[in-house]
Amino acid sequence: MKLLLLLLTVTLLLAQVTPVTKCWGKSGRCRTTCKKREVYYILCKTEAKCCVDPKYVPVRSKLTDTNTSLESTSAV
């Protein structure tokens, strides 16, 4: 029983020591280096990288590119 209490105490202390900072709408985590399956997209407040699963990162399409729309309107 004492061993179980000790294990519970250590687990709770470790959980308090290493908080996880979330970013990108709670889809990413602030880390110094991203894991292999994650992509760095923006910086967190602590200057760490916001590591996000690539499926949550927006992809810029050619239709929404402002340079293309400006060129097409100036040519008219």
Task: Briefly characterize the structure.
This protein has 76 residues and is an alpha+beta fold. It is built from 2 helices and 4 strands.
Detail the topology: elements first, then pairings.
Blueprint: H1 2-17, E1 22-23, E2 28-31, E3 39-43, E4 49-52, H2 66-74
Antiparallel strand pairs: 1-2, 2-4, 3-4
* Helicity range: 25-40%
Q: Detail the poorly predicted runs.
A: 68-74
User: How many alpha or pi helices?
Assistant: 2
Number of strands: 4
Domain Beta-defensin: 22-51
InterPro entries: Beta-defensin (IPR050544), Beta_defensin_dom (IPR025933)
Protein name: Beta-defensin
Family: Belongs to the beta-defensin family.
Supply the key terms.
33% helix, 76 residues, alpha+beta, 4 strands, Beta-defensin, antibiotic, antimicrobial, disordered C terminus, 4-stranded antiparallel β-sheet, 20% strand, 2 helices, single chain
Can you offer a commentary on this structure?
The chain has helices at 2-17, 66-74; strands at 22-23, 28-31, 39-43, 49-52. It has 76 residues and is an alpha+beta fold. It has a domain at 18-57. Strands 1-2-4-3 form a four-stranded antiparallel beta sheet, with no helix packed on it. The longest helix has 16 residues, at 2-17. Residues 68-74 have low confidence and may be disordered.
